[in-house]
Design goal:
This protein is mainly α. The chain is built from 10 helices and 3 strands. It is globular.
């Protein structure tokens, strides 16, 4: 399934989401214009290398946990990540607010890096990409807007159709793919997709969203009964 858009309007301009999109785009352009060889050096300098984080004596390498979130390994990599962030990030930011969304995004990225390092601590392959943090955004969307509709391209045999799918179905299927792919990647050597970063970011997002979300106002009937009870209590006192 390829998501096209969600049917979930926002109330405010998602400034943080757009800023993240812009930063990732600018870093990718910078990577693309670097001379041959310099682009590889850039990735090894600012990408997250689990072995270096685990065993290096230089505390500056910890910064690569964050710098790696704004780097990508190719055009399809960045297009896929930014498409998901654009689609789901605006609604999550709209609920939690820009400051809390920034912190939430970075914490999910940190958890994603931790999960990947835990699964392959001796790896010398640089990990780059925003997908771990974006996985946390998807988890938050799942909790906050489970019944929102996602318009997706769905292949049915030889045909491709547009379908409206509940967000919880789409995101649950996405996570299931990441989980079973992660299980299958255990023991594999070399690079590839950092599935455990996706899993770690998603699990962190599921936990953190309850701390960051804006509580929904009570239903009108509940609010009315609560105000009547408060009025009676005040009158009786």
């Amino acid at each position: 399934m390829i998501p096209i858009r969600d049917l979930n309007p926002t109330r405010n301009t998602p400034w943080v989401t757009w800023t993240l999109l812009l930063l990732c785009g600018l870093v990718f352009i910078w990577q693309a214009v670097l001379p041959v060889g310099a682009d590889r050096d850039f990735v090894f300098a600012y990408g997250l290398i689990p072995r270096r984080v685990m065993f290096s004596q230089d505390p500056a390498v910890l910064l690569t946990v964050f710098t790696s979130m704004f780097m990508h390994g190719g055009l399809m990599h960045i297009l896929g990540n930014l498409w998901f962030l654009r689609m789901f990030g605006d609604n999550v930011e709209d609920n939690v607010g820009p400051v809390r969304f920034t912190l939430f995004y970075l914490l999910c990225g940190l958890a994603a890096a931790g999960a990947q390092i835990a699964m392959s601590p001796a790896s010398g392959v640089p990990m780059v990409g925003a997908s771990g943090a974006i996985a946390g955004v998807l988890a938050a969307y799942l909790v906050l807007f489970p019944h929102a509709r996602v318009v997706a391209l769905v292949p049915i045999f030889i045909f491709i159709q547009f379908m409206e799918i509940p967000a919880f179905v789409f995101i649950a299927l996405w996570f299931g793919l990441q989980f079973f792919s992660g299980i299958g990647s255990i023991g594999a050597a070399g690079g590839g997709v950092a599935y455990w970063a996706h899993i770690g970011g998603f699990v962190a997002g599921l936990a953190l969203v309850y701390l960051f979300r804006t509580p929904r106002p009570p239903a009108p009937r509940v609010a009315f009964e609560r105000s009547q009870m408060q009025w009676r209590n005040g009158r009786g006192g």
